[in-house]
Amino acid sequence: ALALPQPAAVRSRPGRVWRWRNLLVSFAHSVLAGLWALFSLWHSPELLSDIQDGYSVSGHLLVCFSSGYFIHDTLDIIFNHQSRSSWEYLVHHAMAISAFVSLIITGRFLVAAVLLLLVEVSNIFLTVRMLLKMSNVPSPALYEANKYINLVVYFAFRLAPQAYLTWYFLRYVEVQGQGAFLTANLLLLDAMILMYFSRLLRSDFFPSLRKGSAGRDVDGEKFLID
């Protein structure tokens, strides 16, 4: 991230330099974790029949890898004094780290974590969207194409797995101990995902519905909303 060249639109705004590098790291994690999650489920499809106690070394290592990324990103936000503008993502990371650590220690619900990490496939295109907006790429066709791909992938790899796991936990998982903790995390994540989805729709498909974005300085924000 430090070695790659920065677009002029990023270099001209000091507040964007950190965000650009942070997004490049996020993009790298999304590519690795998203493809890894797909490979784990393709290689061991029998895992889907036992979400609570199914186990694979690949899935376990993937959860460890992503936990490391969330810890790194949390520290990056804090040490670069971006906590105030990125507090939503600190909350998300705290939820993910606590949930993933409990899975790593107990070895249970690892399959659920792998299913959740399919979201990283969606994050590939979401991050590309933000990088394009930050760099002011002169080709609107590229942004338009990514916009529709991003919407389709958002449904397939973010909303669908999240909806399935929410249904599964509410129906089959005992609401006590680790099960109760993970169910609460899942429901909070549902709310956050729906909030982000509504922002994405307003920004890319219904810009006339956006409120309060005029003149707002977003240089310090971790993710570009508008």
TrEMBL record:
User: Residues in domain TLC?
Assistant: 15-209
List each coiled-coil range: none
According to its UniProt entry, the protein's GO biological process terms are: membrane assembly; phospholipid homeostasis; plasma membrane organization; regulation of membrane lipid distribution
Question: Carries keyword Membrane?
Answer: yes
Matches recorded under SMART domains: TLC
| Gene Ontology CC annotations of this record | plasma membrane
Task: State where the protein is found.
Answer: Membrane
Subcellular location, principal: membrane
- Cross-referenced PROSITE patterns: TLC
Could you tell me the keywords of this UniProt record?
Membrane, Transmembrane, Transmembrane helix
- Which Pfam families does UniProt cross-reference here? TRAM_LAG1_CLN8 (PF03798)
Locate the transmembrane regions by residue number.
23-42, 111-132, 152-170, 182-201
How this chain sits in the membrane, per its record, is: Multi-pass membrane protein
Per its UniProt record, what PANTHER family does this chain match?
A: CT120 PROTEIN, TLC DOMAIN-CONTAINING PROTEIN 1
Name under which the protein is recorded? TLCD1 protein
Which organism does this record belong to?
Pardalotus punctatus (spotted pardalote)
From the broadest rank down, the organism's phylogenetic lineage runs:
Eukaryota, Metazoa, Chordata, Craniata, Vertebrata
Gene name of the record: Tlcd1
